Amino acid sequence: MDADVARFLRHLEHERRLSPRTVVSYGKDLRDLCQFLDEHRGGGEWRWHSVERLDLRSFMGWCGRRKLGRRTIARKVSAIRTFYGFLDLEDRVSPDPTRALRTPKIEKRLPGHASVGDIGIVFARAESRAAENTLRGTRDLVILEILYGSGLRLAEAHGLDLDDFDLVRRQVKVLGKGEKERLVPITGSACVALRRYLPRRLELLARSRAPDASALFLNRSGRRLSRRSIQTLVRGFLNDAATGEGLSTHALRHSFATHLLDAGADLMAVKELLGHVSLSTTQVYTHTSKERLRRVYRSAHPRS
Predict the structure, then answer these.
(1) Are 159 and 169 in contact (CB under 8 A)?
(2) pTM for this structure?
(3) pLDDT of 233-253, one tens digit each?
(4) Structural domains counted in the chain
């Protein structure tokens, strides 16, 4: 790997504290650029300070010829910009060739979410299973309550420990992106579900040989429940709902934000609850609400 790229990735991991998956993605995008520049400039005879905007435009065309979508190319351009920003801070490049580089225009995707009615179906079925008082039934209900009731990301829910919860204040400490902590409120129904799950969890820990005593969500071996297992169980509940087929685990977070805004919640408050750094990230949920209003108008108004 190029030495500058390797140093940049270490910076992302140790100083910016980005997730391992994000660092891997940056590395792949920059390796693709190195591969292109080797071919484009010939035999590796190039340096980062000698790369020009036209070289990067050619790289975007190269990505297009490889049948990469606009969204993927835009992500690669963003990674290159961040990398050159890092080199610029170290006075390794002048001028920065990415400053006049245009990102491909991509169509904004409105986040998928479940309707209030479908959420009701999901929780009715989860409550029914939890009433059987099994480890799986009570645990799965808590997972749904946390993902939808508090708007957590999958990684945030997966990493929860029992000590993160304060049931008296009805809040949970969440470790979000960039290892930033935030306090998030939890619903009364989540507290009820958690109190029903904890005795089953203790029974499991007592009979497990190598339990993970700190983790909140456990599998039947007493280990922390995997992200894939959480995804599978949530998709199962969503697919059972009337119109929830094809929605991902993240749809519960989208539903949380959309339903809050539909009910009149303040955009800044929703931003803080979601742990977004930028308000523009949260504003996509207002677009979701507006788009739904347009569909209702077009289908219902006699002259639409």
Answers:
(1) no
(2) 0.69
(3) 999 999 877 565 678 888 899
(4) 2
